[in-house]
């Protein structure tokens, strides 16, 4: 009897919500008018371009799977795809290693000091990625800051090749994407009640035990969100790899850009985009399933 009443409570709550004035505060026509601009922007700015590009992968030049067959039969394109996934994973791991201590320090600092650190984290987001990429070119070029310092200290006898390498791409992409890792983790750590940490310390837990048993498990939703955003952004990053990377560090986004701007092969560019989209979805689903058994991850959208 109690179970039946319990199941009826959500239904009664939904019925009372539909009968309340707040539910019908706006007429249906006005609500549709309010969402039409957003739907049009989403349709013309995202759905239509992506749908047309994916359609051209099957219909250019003729209907068929020639573009996908070309992609699978050419080892170069498969190597580029594999390199893109590996670079994205490395950037994600580097951003997590650099971002988690910063987020933890921000959560433990006083409000005024935390605001200063937050401003330092947000400052790169206010600067164009193009400007930051050119700054790395100035720093890593043969007569750049790093080589000049090493030459001045006598560590090296001739300039090192630091720019236009895969390491330069990973370094520059990590610098650009690390704020997207810090902010979700900071929000997750700030949401942890301080009473839990105080109770653990009163019971004799040390710093490492508090971190391993309380802070890290409860901050997993923020870690998952930051890793997901950083990984997806790294997979489709274009500006930084195009400027800092060389032919040996070609990524999928740069390859797609070459197909659309230089060779004008829109059909093959659509096939590359479709494969990259499918790989992204598969990796995200696998990543979600792998972490879904951890506490708190199952509640992350």
TrEMBL record:
| Keywords for this protein | Cell membrane, Membrane, Transmembrane, Transmembrane helix, Transport
Q: What is this protein called?
A: ABC transporter permease
Q: Does the keyword Transport apply?
A: yes
Q: How does it sit in the membrane?
A: Multi-pass membrane protein
The record's Pfam families line, in alphabetical order, gives: BPD_transp_1 (PF00528)
The segment(s) forming the ABC transmembrane type-1 domain are: 81-287
Q: Which PROSITE patterns match?
A: ABC_TM1
Q: What is its main location?
A: membrane
Instruction: Give the residue spans that cross the bilayer.
Output: 28-48, 80-104, 116-139, 168-189, 210-239, 266-287
Record's subcellular location? Cell membrane
Q: Which family does the record claim for this protein?
A: Belongs to the binding-protein-dependent transport system permease family. CysTW subfamily.
User: Is Cell cycle included in the keywords of this UniProt record?
Assistant: no
The signal sequence is none
């Amino acid at each position: 009897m109690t179970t039946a009443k319990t199941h009826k409570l959500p239904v009664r709550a939904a019925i009372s919500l539909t009968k309340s004035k707040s539910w019908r505060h706006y007429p249906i026509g006005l609500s549709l008018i309010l969402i039409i601009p957003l739907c049009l922007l989403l349709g013309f700015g995202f759905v239509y371009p992506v749908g047309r590009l994916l359609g051209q992968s099957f219909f250019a030049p003729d209907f068929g799977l020639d573009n996908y067959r070309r992609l699978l039969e050419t080892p170069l394109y498969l190597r580029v795809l594999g390199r893109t996934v590996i670079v994205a994973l490395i950037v994600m791991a580097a951003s997590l290693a650099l971002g988690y201590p910063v987020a933890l320090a921000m959560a433990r600092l006083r409000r005024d000091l935390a605001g200063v650190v937050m401003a330092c984290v947000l400052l790169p987001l206010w600067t164009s990625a193009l400007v930051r990429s050119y700054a790395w070119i100035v720093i890593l070029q043969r007569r750049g800051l790093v080589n000049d310092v090493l030459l001045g200290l006598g560590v090296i006898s001739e300039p090192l090749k630091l720019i236009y390498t895969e390491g330069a791409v990973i370094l520059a992409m990590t610098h650009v994407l690390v704020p997207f890792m810090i902010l979700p983790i900071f929000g997750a750590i700030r949401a942890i009640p301080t009473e839990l940490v105080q109770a653990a310390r009163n019971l004799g837990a040390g710093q490492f035990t508090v971190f391993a048993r309380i802070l890290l498990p409860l901050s997993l939703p923020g870690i998952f969100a930051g890793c997901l955003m950083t990984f997806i952004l790294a997979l489709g990053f274009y500006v930084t790899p195009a400027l800092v990377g060389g032919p040996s560090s070609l990524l999928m986004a740069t390859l797609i850009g070459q197909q659309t701007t230089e060779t004008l092969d829109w059909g093959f560019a659509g096939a590359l985009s479709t494969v990259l989209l499918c790989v992204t979805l598969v990796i995200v689903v696998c990543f979600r399933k792998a972490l879904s058994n951890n506490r708190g991850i199952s509640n992350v959208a």
